[in-house]
Amino acid sequence: MTDDMILLDGVRYHRYEPKSESEFERMVVENAREIFGGDAIYLDIKKLIKTEWGKGTIPDGYLFYPEQKRFVLVEVELSSHPVYEHISKQVNKFISAFSNYKSRQKLASVLKDHIEDNPLLIKRIQPLLGMKGLYEFLEFEVFEPLADSKAFEVFVIIEDETPAVIEALSWLNPHPQLIEVTVYAREGAETVKAMRFVPQYQIAPRTEKLEKEQETIRPADVLEEMTNDLIKWFKGEFVNAAINKAQEYTGLAILKPGAQKANNICEIHTQKTRVKLHIRLEYDSIIKPTNFTEKVGWLSWWSDGDTVARIRNRSELDEAKRLISLAYEQLERQAILGIRKEQEPFTQTKVVGKLLPSIAYKLPILAVLLENNGHLHRSEFLYSIGNYLKDIMTNSDFEKTPKGQREIWKDHAASRAYSMKKEGLILCENGEDWYITTTGRKYYEGHKNDM
């Protein structure tokens, strides 16, 4: 290992050799987005797959590019270890296991469960599914084509790209792509680390002209016009939109049913050179962030994540509006219990009785979707379920939840819908439109006589 050094604002960072592969692997996992880009999802599911496939056949991680239907094996290695022997053994055993149909089914099942545990991943992948379930998408559109083509990709992440490492990897088949991720530690404070690597994605160039343009002070009336444009759009886009005026910012907020206070989803700060937006949005949920957005991280204004966007030109307003719309969708706990106006309620029953159990909503949810050609908009979805069940609901179902924000039957219907979405029976596109999947149709046909 060469003993090079980084000097940053007078502070020395010396080359650091991770004490173990697990330590180095953890660094790679924590910085996967910076190394591989926002299009790639790093899947740290080694322990889960070991349970299904057995030990000794599992690479350190995987990269999944859902839009490209691309699946890459990742090996994290230290240059001081026997690279060829280790990687060759792992990759060959994985390919051998992957050639088995049942093994691919198990991998698709593990990956499906892992993705469904992360609402942000589900939200990102959902538009790609069409009428398929997540499991079907993984098995038939990602894994089967890879098994047929045998075009396996392997990334080897190493802390020091030595001649010996390059020579060892040149004999491997499939030939891996070598990515050097060099680690440095701050002098006198070894826990503070820096990393040097070549990003595996295209970074938008920042030209001198662009830099100069962005630092130009904008006339106050132009900035005010951009701010007013955002406010006008927001008030027209969302029902129950509210504007919170503060001394230092203007808050774009939503007043949810039963709430006493409107929740800000964006704060607008008008500055000399730009309009700065603090958006209540998990940065990692943005599929392709622009060069004027950034992640705040530990300085978050909100516990569920924070994105900052710096708007300098009117041409950037459309992207800002898209991010605010995503923040709105993230704010809603359940898409079908949104704040947009629903249809007029049906007549409330006067029958006295017990609550319908949550499971009682399962088949009716599928039935109302089928009655409407497999699709309902969010504003119609909840009403249709209630209308379908109104003859068997009792007064207990129309009581308010403990917090008094909505009727219990709506809460139960929403809870069951989200469970069914995890099962792959239904899917929700962009938080607005609900569809029944092929799996859902088959389930209904096999169980409709149980209603």
SSE order and pairing:
Layout: E1 5-8, E2 11-15, H1 21-30, H2 32-36, E3 41-43, H3 46-53, E4 61-65, E5 70-77, H4 83-98, H5 101-116, H6 119-129, H7 134-149, E6 153-158, H8 163-169, E7 177-180, E8 182-186, E9 189-196, H9 208-214, H10 220-237, E10 241-245, E11 250-254, E12 263-270, E13 275-279, E14 293-295, E15 307-311, H11 317-331, H12 362-371, E16 375-377, H13 378-389, H14 408-423, E17 426-429, E18 433-436, H15 438-447
Parallel strand pairs: 5-6, 6-7
Antiparallel strand pairs: 1-2, 2-8, 3-4, 4-5, 8-9, 10-11, 11-12, 12-13, 13-15, 14-15, 16-18, 17-18
Helix pairs in contact: 3-5, 5-7, 12-13, 12-15
Tell me what the structure shows.
With 451 residues, this protein is α+β, with helices and mostly antiparallel strands. The chain has 3 domains: 5-196, no CATH class; 213-331, Alpha-Beta Complex (Aspartate Aminotransferase, domain 1), CATH 3.90.1150; 358-450, Arc Repressor Mutant, subunit A. Helix content is 39%, strand content 20%. It is built from 15 helices and 18 strands. The strands form 4 sheets. Strands 10-11-12-13-15-14 form a 6-stranded antiparallel β-sheet, covered by helices on one side. A hairpin with an 8-residue loop joins strand 11 (250-254) and strand 12. Helix 5 (101-116) crosses helix 7. The protein starts with a strand and ends with a helix.
